[in-house]
Every structure is written in structure tokens, then in C-alpha cells.
Write a structure and sequence with these properties.
Length: about 130
């Protein structure tokens, strides 16, 4: 028993859990252009994304809609924003992913074009 109907829309019980109506969900999808808010891919079955840090489970069902952020595909919902991921962790991941490979080597010197504008070279060199 999944959380989606055959048409890909969340089941009424899923929407009710977040205090949403079908019209609310359609408004979210329209605002996002019908795609995942993160990866921008079209998915037939987008998930209701909500902020776990606001204590949404303790809210009255009608107030839970205030914790809803948008619609995400399954991958982004479960791998990017799920499992306790915070904005600080995502920002740290972005910095990490921007670094060139092999920066752990003692003789590493990043290619100049790999260093984002405004970032001091010292931040990219091994310590």
C-alpha cells in the first residue's frame, strides 16, 4: 500500500497527513513547474517535502501545511534532504564537491581555473 494513487498524485490520506488539499498540492506543483524543486527533473510521483525541524508531528493536522516546503522526487527527498541533512551540511557538501580531486596529496596544486573567484588560494592548499 503506497502513498500514491495510480495517477501519481499523493493519496488523500497522505495529503491530509500534511494538512494539504489536492488544490494545495496542485498549487505547489504549478509553482515548481511540475518538476522536483531540487534536481528539476520531471517525475510522475513527487513526494511531499516538509521541514522535520519544526516539530510537525506535534502540530495539529491543519497547521502541518506550514511545514511543507514543496515537492521532491524520491531520490532528492530520500538522499538529499532526508536522513537529518541540514542546510549547513548541504553547504559543506557544496564546498567539498567544488574542490578538485587529489587535493589530499602533499604536492597538490589546484589548477587556477578550479578555484572559485574570491576564494583565497590558501583555503585550497594542504596544511
Amino acid at each position: 500500500m503506497g502513498t500514491k494513487d495510480d495517477d501519481g498524485l499523493p493519496k488523500k490520506a497522505t495529503l491530509a497527513k500534511y494538512g494539504l488539499t489536492l488544490d494545495d498540492w496542485r498549487a505547489i506543483l504549478e509553482r515548481q513547474g511540475g518538476v522536483c524543486a531540487i534536481c528539476k527533473k520531471t517525475s510522475r510521483r513527487l513526494c511531499v517535502d516538509h521541514d522535520h525541524l519544526v516539530g510537525w508531528k506535534d502540530m495539529a493536522p491543519a497547521d502541518r501545511r506550514n511545514a511543507v516546503r514543496g515537492a521532491l522526487c524520491w531520490f532528492c527527498n530520500s538522499h538529499i534532504v532526508g536522513r537529518g541533512v541540514t542546510l549547513a551540511k548541504i553547504q559543506a557538501a557544496a564546498v567539498y564537491l567544488a574542490k578538485p580531486a587529489n587535493d589530499w596529496a602533499p604536492d597538490f596544486r589546484p589548477p587556477v581555473e578550479a578555484i572559485p573567484e574570491g576564494v583565497p588560494l590558501e583555503k585550497w592548499l594542504p596544511r
